[in-house]
Amino acid sequence: MTGHCAVTVVITGKIKPDKLDVARAALEAVIRAVIGKEPACHGIRVHEDPDDPCRLLIIEQWDSVEAFTGPHMQTPHQKAFFAQAQVFLDGEADFTFWRETFAAP
Fold first, then answer.
1. Is the distance from CB of 88 to CB of 16 less than 8 angstroms?
2. In Å, how far from its chain's centre is CA 103?
3. How does the average pLDDT of the chain come out, rounded?
4. Where are the strands (E) in the chain, listed by range?
5. pLDDT band with cut points at 50, 70 and 90 for residue 3
6. What does the alpha-carbon distance between residue 75 and residue 80 come to, in Å, rounded to a whole number?
7. Which whole number is the average pLDDT over 40-67?
8. CA separation (Å) from 17 to 5, 31, 49, 63?
9. Residues 76-83, mean pLDDT to the nearest whole number
């Protein structure tokens, strides 16, 4: 999916059980930085699986795929977060891109 239209980025991943606190702190810090410094981001929500708090679902709203994959990924705060994530991620995070087609009022 390409093009300069609004996109929802859905990220899923698993956190090492002994690194949950580290992961939560790193996520909170990077989300504050993204929301504060990147006008192309219109919101980030983090969800945990009620049956397995090590499984996270992150939903982000962006101006476009290009805004997320380009400038966002080159920011110092995002690069630092990816370096930190190597410590707490259990495997690879999965990134998918979605375009809204219908929303109920």
1. yes
2. 22
3. 94
4. 7-14, 41-49, 52-62, 94-98
5. low
6. 9
7. 97
8. 37, 21, 13, 34
9. 96
Tell if the pTM clears 0.85, that is, is over it: yes
Give the integer Cα–Cα distance in Å for 44 and 19. Answer: 21
8 A C-beta contact, residue 22 and residue 88: yes
What percentage of the chain's residues is helix, strand, coil (to nearest 5)?
40, 35, 25
C-alpha distances out from residue 76 to 6, 21, 26, 38, 64, Å: 24, 22, 14, 12, 20
Q: Is 76 exposed, middle or buried (0-12, 13-18, 19+ CB in 10 A)?
A: exposed
Query: Are the beta carbons of 78 and 30 closer than 8 angstroms?
Result: yes
Short-list 18, 10, 85, CA closest to 45: 10
Q: Residue 75: which of 42, 40, 46 has the closest Cα?
A: 40
CB atoms within 10 A of CB 68: 21
